[in-house]
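Operator note (shift B, R.M.): manual run for Topoisomerase II requested after the automated queue skipped it. Running by hand, logging everything below so the morning shift can see what happened. Input copied straight from the record, untouched. If output looks odd, do not overwrite the archive copy; leave it for review.
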Amino acid sequence: MRIAALLVALIIVACHHSAFAGDVAAAQSIIRAQEQAFVRDDAAAAYSYAAPAIKEIFPAPDIFMSMVRNGYAPVYRHKSFEFGDSKTDGGWIAQRVHIVDANGEAWVALYTLEQQGDGSYKITGCSLLKAGQSV
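Run finished. Output pasted below as returned.
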């Protein structure tokens, strides 16, 4: 009986880890797709990954792109863009990204994503700090 209970517990943990890994992979895919849209200057594609709350603040793709160009230059243009740690909490994911900007300066971006009603994830925000800077 103990062995059966242990097996059930292991299966639950494995399924949870697998779902976590799948959600993180989905979130990273969304972030990467938006990053590549920025590289191509494809405002419509970049905007499509933004959550509804972001679209309320920036009601058109060109307005959104202007905000990114002016306020998130390291995200918009960079030499490297590598995923770091991630955390999940229910339908939310926080994903750290290590960026080296066009001038060679290191940054850390913390993306947040929320799971939508259709199961997809959308980007709800991005906080940008120079590497080593405290919050």
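Quick read of the result: The first strand starts at residue 78 and ends at 89. Residues 51 and 94 are 14 Å apart (CA to CA).
Leaving this for review. - R.M.
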